[in-house]
Structure formats: C-alpha cells, structure tokens
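[audit] Reproducing an earlier prediction to check determinism. Same input, same settings, fresh worker. If the tokens differ from the archived copy the diff job will pick it up downstream; this log only records the rerun itself.
[audit] input (201 residues):
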Amino acid sequence: MPAARESLLDAACTALTHRPWSAVRMVDVAASAGVSRQTLYNEFGSKDGLARALVRREADGYLAGVERALAGSAEACARLTAAAEWTAAAARDNPLVRALLTGCWTERLPNPPLTAVASTSTVPAQRRADGPLPAPRDFVRKVRDRAATALAEPDASPADTAELLRACELVVRLALSCVAAPPGEGGMEELVRAVLPRHLV
C-alpha cells in the first residue's frame, strides 16, 4: 500500500501547515488522503507512528537532496556549495527539516523521540519508522561522509582524506549556521571557498 502511505504522509504534512500537530486529527488525515481511518491505523499504528514516519520521510528527502546536489557538477567547490545551499533552503522551506537539522522543535511540530521505540504495529518492518531518528549531529556526519565520498580521489593519501573530511564537515556546519543567519547573494560560495583546501577550490 505504498501509494496510500504516501498520500497519508502528504495529508499529514498539509495538515501540519494549517494547525499544530496536537490539533491534527487522524480522522481528518485519513479523509484528506481518501482512505479509511482503519487504513491509516493499519499503516502507522498510531498518531505517534504517523509522526515518526513523517519525520523519517522528511529526513530521507533532505538526504536525497544532498545526494542530488553533490552529483550536479564536476567541480568540488560547486558541488559543496550546492549541498550547502540545499541545506539552507530545505531548512528555510520545511519546518520539519529545520527542526531535524537544528534540534529546535516547536510546539507546532510532532516531536517524536529520536531513540528507537518498541513497535506493536503489524506494519511490515521495512515500512515502520520505529528505528532511531537522526539527531543534528547524525546529519552533520552523514552529509560530511557523503560529500567526502563524492569528492574523494582514488589515490588520496590518509592526510588528504582527513583534510577533505574536515573541510566537508566545516561546509556542513557553515550551511547549518546559514539556516539561522542566511548569507547575502553569492555568499554561500564565498564561505565554502574559504574553508576548502586549496587543491579543491
């Protein structure tokens, strides 16, 4: 039932733009998605299960956007700039992504525990979201590692690899700082260039 699942998550996301999560009702989410309330409960188990699945989907969508940004150009600086710009834009445009990246959850958002939860749901394990959810430090590590992998040269020395990892982590942390204080036009590229090793600029 992947189509119904996506429709339900879309409906929950839309509901969240109009009211705080505490006021989002399961019956309204089901009706908006065009399925029965029982289908919603069969798919997610509970409102908490729906919240975890929604947060997991937004986290996965953000990381997929990072992958696209890193694949978009041949030049290292351009790829890292694109990933940093995507991070800032995704956090600006999506309150759930902003909360995931910063750890600042408001009362309007679902705030599921980041640790794994025991599940009594009959939903198949590959569709449940009861595993641990990423914390901000997890995103720093994941994006840093993906960027370093995308930019690594096959014959790089351990020192070059360590330098690349440090530079990629600095870029990720700069991007997160830009969520709170966006740079001016073209400012992201200048910030990225400032922290990259000379051979990557």
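[audit] rerun output stored. Observation attached for the diff report: The chain is about 65% helix and 0% strand.
[audit] end
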